# Entry
Amino acid sequence: MKKIPKKMYFLYSTREKYPTFRVDLTELFSKGIVKKGHAIDWHMQRIEEGEAAVEVVNDNERVFIGSKSASSRLFSKVKNQLLGFFHDIRLFKIIKNNHYDFIQVRDKVFAGLIGRLAAKKSGVPFYYWMSFPYPEADLYRAKDFSTHFSWFMRVFYWFRGKISSFILYKLVLPKADFIFVQSDKMLQDVQKHGISEHKMMPVPMGISLSTLENYTSEPVEEERLLGKKVLIYLGTMVRIRRIDFLLDMLSEILESMPDTVLLLVGDAPSKDMAFLKKRAEQLGILENVIFTGFVPMEKGWSYILRSDVCLSPFRPSPILDSTSPTKVVEYLALGKPVVANTHPDQSKVLQESGAGYAVEYTARAFSEACIKILNDPKLGQAMGENGIKYVRDCRTYEVLSQRLELQYQSLLEK
# Structure
């Protein structure tokens, strides 16, 4: 007989602001862990102006909310940093006054140090949740001369990166009882700092099964798509993402498949959108590119259902390599074959699922992979079916939440 986990009560401090709509918090915890009868006290700062407060969300959730100043001036930004600092200090009192089973801090280096010390004093386990390498990101910004930071900001990022790196990798993670990371690649990166892989667990991004089951929309049927082979990219179009290489990809595909169109579903500042349209015009393919602008999520999914191949370019970066993109998972959940570039998590998903190709981040590699799928509808259909099964077995938040609950229970039993 399967053992029923005991009900847990824990504190979760996160750098996300309140209220948060981040899915790996709402789906994994509020709709996952809490729905199983466990209780969480959240520790966050306000997203908008307001005083400190304690808000009861439901019988099993309440939030210790830090205050925030209103203005966007430099003085107020500094003030809000100080308010956040003092809110982190309150962790000592919050932990002392409540009988938690464990303390968990997400992505907050200083709060991680406070949480670890307070947990030790209270005699309860301390877990750290690392979803992004913030110290490395600061150090990368400091030396990335492709951006237009002032020397003052570069020094600031360098200094903050060095300090936060020391605190995280020397004082917090080595003493943490367990560490949750975003991906296998992040586990490997953290391991290089002398942290044992046996006290880490990857928890990647996923998708809500209930959201998919309640999704009732049909594929978009528009005149401009009739009789066309449809490629789709859904996401931000900001220039820094270098989506323009998809236009070069389309130009190559059109040489052998002139009935192909590229759907670009998403938005960006007008200057960035104008750049993409100008590039399409220069290539002579503007009539084969459809810009939808921003659309609601369900409309975006309807466009995906109408497509033949879904595209997930994720610009290679030493900072982004350890992340877990959700785009591929959404595509697979809707039963579509995917062409993505080689990225640790994207490559892992496509290799394990057999639902697409992970190729080099070049127009030629993307065009060749797309043509293979477009020329073989049965292959595309099989990939789509593989993707649906893989997501349901491995990447729904219902599955991930169950794994997480069992991991917590195993840790507490030890």
User: Anything to note?
Assistant: The chain has a mean pLDDT of 93. The longest helix spans residues 151-172. The radius of gyration is 23 Å.
